Amino acid sequence: MLANTIVEEKSYALSYFDRKIEAAIAGLPREYSKLLYKTPKDNALKIADYIISLKTEINLSDNYRKDLIKVLTKFSMFCCSSSSKSSVINNVIIPCSKSFVQVF
Predict the structure, then answer these.
(1) pLDDT value at residue 104
(2) Global pTM exceeds 0.90
(3) Of 4, 33, 71, 84, which has the maximum CB count within 10 A?
């Protein structure tokens, strides 16, 4: 019984992750989903959430989403490979980009 519950929770978490990634890259080539899947899961979710929220607030072009995914995933991988294992996307990138968007 407990094993079934754990499997169901993992399946739900995986499907939640997949749905977020798919929503963020909707209309983009598959290579961008591969970039997000290679990124640490917590950072990939934050990047996906950020892109989804930007899509709802402003009309993002596909090229802008491509650039965001490329830059944020590379930055995330770079920072995770360094000594700092904290969620850089959440603590650095998103607050800076929110202040940038508010200027415009």
Answers:
(1) 43
(2) no
(3) 33
